[in-house]
Specification:
Blueprint: H1 3-12, H2 17-24, E1 29-32, H3 66-77, E2 85-89, H4 110-119, E3 122-126, H5 146-170, E4 174-178, E5 183-184, H6 191-205, E6 213-218, E7 229-230, H7 234-244, E8 247-251, H8 261-269, E9 275-279, E10 281-283, E11 286-289, H9 295-306, E12 313-317, H10 326-345, H11 349-357, H12 361-371, H13 376-386, H14 392-409
The chain binds L-rhamnitol and zinc ion.
Length: 410
């Protein structure tokens, strides 16, 4: 179907495809650096990967240096419509020095900022509370040992400082997201003490306010090795974010598989100033598969648009698959999020809301199901065509050519 025909089909429903395209192109996606190298980072030495975060596979071509990672990112951003962001972890520093986590400074990340400026990208940041000898027992900010807690508080404090400086340098606030692996393999007897320690450590970490910075906290239901109790559970961080009026991060892979994460947006948005999303795809016990155009993602995008939450939600991705081309994973993942957002913008929102408000659930069902048949693909093709970006077999060709290159050279 041509774009012209599709445009007319949507116009029949009162939907303006040009307005939908314009809105889509204004939404930045924060691309997670850690898909590029299987969450390894560039530290001179590190502990076991740990933390229940596991990238499986050994596909050739993993980025081994900051320069390789940047080259892979440039290629990937080059296949995406719109302007986006890069989500960096503290273990991705770019320096000849070997600072421990409690000694990182802005200068260790300055090359990333220069590059982001040159590329017109915003940055986001994360302290790294895993893959370190002091995190090998899956306890960091809630560790019973005061010295270990202090080490991690210092890491988090410095991460916030670095993030704020990045935000100032780029003229765009940086979201600094806190996720800790803390938890217990077997049933603890003093959950309260652990949560009080996490609470106090976070307070110490977040004590100094910074401009150009947004603090976020991310919960998790369980992880490999922390099956019995996660100290930073959803209830813990929901309460903490509300008390401190900071951002709550919802990772779609961090809840029970029958929970609908899209449903949570409007509920928590009433109580926290802004939200961070880690768009991800859970499967059985694992939380981080490449996102598909499945119902979970479509519902998430629809909620963001219909609930008017795009202005207060930072959309980040979080998955890592080392069994496929890492650049392809990025491109497909971001494009799927964008396609979902485009589809949400192409729905006759006012009409759907009106039938629901009138209590006509029959009409709501008929309309939502009929709307699935609209020619969304023709509008996406148009978005890509206007940006001279390949789709279909041509996209596969571009991804394969690049992958062959990195596999040969690395
Ligand atoms: C881990 C969390 C966290 C990490 C990244 C690397 O379960 O989802 O967001 O994936 O910080
Ligand atoms: Zn996450």
């Amino acid at each position: 179907m041509t774009y012209g025909t599709a445009k007319a089909r949507f116009a029949d429903w009162g939907v303006d495809t040009e307005a939908a395209i314009a809105s889509l192109l204004k939404i930045p996606i924060s691309v997670h650096c850690w898909q590029g190298d299987d969450v390894r980072g560039f530290e001179a030495k590190s502990g076991t990967s740990g933390g229940g975060i596991q990238a499986t596979g050994n596909h050739p071509g993993r980025a081994r240096t900051p320069d390789e990672l940047r080259a892979d990112l440039e290629f990937s951003y080059g296949l995406l419509p719109g302007k986006h962001r890069l989500n960096l972890h503290a273990c991705y520093l770019d320096t000849d020095e070997s600072p421990d986590r409690d000694a990182i400074e802005y200068r260790h990340f300055a090359p990333w900022v220069d590059w982001a400026k040159e590329q017109g990208l915003g940055l986001d940041f994360n302290p790294t509370f895993f893959a370190h000898a002091k995190a090998d027992d899956n306890l960091t900010l809630s560790h019973p040992d005061q010295g270990i807690r202090a080490f991690w508080v210092e890491h988090g404090r410095r991460s916030r400082e670095i993030a704020a400086k990045m935000g100032a340098a780029l003229g765009s606030p940086v979201v600094n997201n806190i996720w800790v692996p803390d938890g217990y393999k077997d049933t603890p007897v003093d959950r309260m003490a652990a949560r009080q320690r996490l609470d106090a450590s976070l307070d110490a970490m977040l004590a100094t306010p910074h401009d150009h910075l947004r603090d976020a906290v991310e919960s998790k239901l369980f992880g490999i090795g922390v099956e019995a109790c996660t100290v930073g559970s959803h209830e813990f961080y929901l309460g903490y974010a509300i008390r401190k009026q900071i951002l709550l991060c919802l990772d779609m892979g961090h809840f029970h598989p029958t929970e609908n994460i899209a449903d949570k947006l409007s509920a928590v948005a009433l109580s926290v100033p802004e939200l961070l999303l880690h768009v991800s795809r859970p499967m059985r016990w694992d939380s981080d598969h490449v996102i598909l155009q499945n119902d979970d993602i479509l519902q998430m995008a629809q909620e963001l648009v219909f609930a008017g939450l795009l202005d207060k939600t930072h959309i980040g991705l979080d998955f890592f698959d080392a069994t496929i081309s890492r650049t392809a994973a990025w491109v497909i993942g971001v494009r799927n999020m964008q396609k979902a957002l485009l589809r949400a913008h192409l729905l006759p929102q006012a009409r759907l809301k009106a039938v629901e408000a009138a209590g006509d659930f029959t009409a709501r069902l008929v309309l939502t199901e009929e709307l699935r048949d609209l020619p969304f693909a023709a509008v996406w093709e148009e978005v890509c065509l206007r940006a001279s970006l390949p789709t279909g077999p041509a996209l596969l060709g571009a991804l394969e050519t690049y992958q062959r290159g990195v596999a040969d050279r690395r």
